Amino acid sequence: MLSFVRRHREPLLVCILLAHALGMFLGSSRRVREPNVIDRVALAMTAPVQRAAVASVDGVVNAWQQYVSLRSVRGEVGKLQTENAQLRGDVVGLAEARAENERLRRLIHYEEGNPGPKVVARVLGINPDPNRLTLRIDRGEGDGVRRGQAVVTADGVVGQVLRATASAADVLVAFDPNCRLGGRIQRTRARVGVSGSGEAQALKLEYLLRSEDLEEGDLVVTSGTDGVYPPGLVVGRVTGVQRQTSGMFLNAGILPAVNFTRVEEVVVLAPQPAASVPTRVDSQGRR
Fold first, then answer.
1. 62, 80, 113 — which closes off a domain?
2. Is the pTM of this model over 0.85?
3. Same domain, yes or no, for 129 and 16?
4. Are 161 and 143 in contact (CB under 8 A)?
């Protein structure tokens, strides 16, 4: 017994003091008295233990509250990140819709200024044909698209229909070497030939005499003499004028008005009527 008391004398002393303080508190619950020496000793010894216990409890409570707050903040951050990603997607979608609306608005204005049958089509892609530079569109014979029809945008000439199926068609673009069209220098009204160079953003100006007036930046439009394109469509602007010391014609290029790598919607025009040939009548009124 004595050995047990010696080994545990400090915890026993604390328990006795606590029990004494509790007993004094319970005994004095109905009356107020000044603490005696034993009370003061008990309070002095138990105060650090009480402060440590309170600090431990407060630490645990604070840690738990911080953990709960952190979990809440993480949840809010995840929610905000999801909403941010959705908003970014909406912004991209709105930008695409705005760009498409602008292109379609320009096509509508083109249709209003150029009456006549036409078909609006969407470009599906570039055909992987090394011998022909063509675009595939999502309209075909079922929509009234036929071989040889002119294809344009609000900016100018794209090309002409090379072949058509029931629901799609291939458009031979203007810069293909096999493409030819009749043009005119808008400033001087001189007729010229326009052919593809095989490069995406380059056409060739042909059959303009060296004596003709030609300047860098002159606008080239369709002449309407090729039976495909109506007159007045924009082809591009003259670039790289070279006046040779010999030969009949000037050498020059044309920068297309249409960026063929960015075309998304096009307009297919109705076939142009054949030019009428005047009928000769003799002096007696006979044909």
1. 113
2. no
3. no
4. no
